Amino acid sequence: MIPGERATSARARAFLLLSPLLAGALLLAVYRAPAGSSIAFLSDSFYYYGPLRSLAFDGDLDLRNEAASASYLETTRDTILSTPPEEVEFLKRESVRLGIPEEEFERRKRAWLEELRALTPETWAAWVRASFPERLPNDFPPGWAVLAAPFYFVVRAIAPAPDGGEELPGYERRYRLSTHVATAVQAFLGLCAAYAFLRRSFDERTSLLSVWIVALGTNLAYFLGGISSHVASFLAVSVFLWLWGRLEDRPDRLSRWALLGAAAGGMAICRWQEAIFLLLPAATILRLHRRPEPGEGTPTRGRLWAGVACAAAAAALAFVPQLIYWKAYFGTWLHWPHGSDYVDLGRVPSLILPSLLGRNGLVSTHPVSGVALLGLAAFARRHRPAGVLLLVAVLLETVVNASVADWYGGHAPAPIGNRRFAACVPAFAWGIAAILEAARGRRFLRPLLTAALLGWGIYEQAALSLR
């Protein structure tokens, strides 16, 4: 078999071995798509799904008619009023931690609930129109909507007529199901890209097992079949890491720089904090710039900076959807998402341990993620530079996640293990792969370790499905 045929056969075999994950994700997408439209109005989902519906049916990005609808009011009210008592107590403790006295929390809660119960669809719609005469702000990024748009608009083209079952067209089940399927496909493609990235450092079996373990044992599965930016971030980071690996092979090719730049812009429009992973190509640029003599496949300094310029141009082009969002929702081409006090590094000392080990913490909810972190820390130096750079990137992500007040996931109905770590799942897969490789050759250790990690992931998903 010639090398090209061998590589093609390996990719086909990997696709087949990963395809059950796609089937499972699609089944979850269908299962979790509710009969009513409440999921599309719920919390953050409203700001991800709403622009897609508004663009398809209204020809704009204005969310005021969606926000003024009775469906939005009823979904929001039902969600808040049905918050479990233990969740309210948890929110109280977090508020006290952030400096709000318990008495003040209770006073605000009572006043808010009384006002919420008194609202009618008419008074709510009037309040929205009076409060937002020009535009309804939307701080949430457009990445998920950009990736889901092909699925949504295919349904729009096939079945354009509304069925009258929803207050606003575009919220029918077929449209919501299309976006759930889009999220499932995003997750599968992200896992394939993560596998391709792992193959640079590990053998085929180790890479496949690691991808299966993180697919089942991390918070990624919670978001399958839903409306969320976290799966989009996972896909964007996985593709970025894979393209960075390809760039490492041939940094003299401008096309690879352009693709990496486009992936960087894609990461930024999914979640701005994923720009942390730019640390990896930054290290590549520094290494190539300091190398005095170019070798085979190594660019001259002029070629290197031409590549960087191509990457920057491609990143800027990929970032255009975010600029359009900011202009539509804030009237300016540049905007600081969620306000300048959204990220506060002063919170890190008090929140970093709870974000990892507390309720809805990353490790306490998903121990497989903790094992992956140990693998990253223990074996990073053995696989330089990728291992060291991934470890630093995950540490920086940990600091950023601990600097946000609502790190715990808000009113999440089930533990999701610090949702913003979903983009780190490719790095977690790398940590698992490093552990499995270190155990290779030991007669019973590797099979037992693999079975334990896979078994724990299956248990987690079963427990999650029963909640």
Structure characterization notes:
The chain is mainly α. The chain has 22 helices and no strands. Helix 9 packs across helix 10 (173-198), helix 10 runs antiparallel to helix 11 (204-217) and helix 10 runs parallel beside helix 12 (229-249). It starts with a helix and ends with a helix.
Question: Which key terms come to mind for this protein?
Answer:
single chain, 467 residues, mainly alpha, 2 domains, 22 helices, 0% strand, disordered N terminus
- Proportion of residues in β-strands: under 5%
**CA-based shape:** globular
- The secondary-structure class comes to mainly alpha
| Tally of discrete structural domains | 2
Summarize the main sheet.
none
Q: Helicity range of the residues?
A: 55-70%
Nearest-integer average pLDDT: 85
**Residue runs with pLDDT of under 50 for 5 or more positions:** 1-5
The SSE string, one letter per element, is HHHHHHHHHHHHHHHHHHHHHH
Total count of strands: 0
Radius of gyration: 23 Å
Number of separate helices: 22
What is the distance, rounded to the nearest whole angstrom, between the alpha carbons of the first and last residues?
50 Å
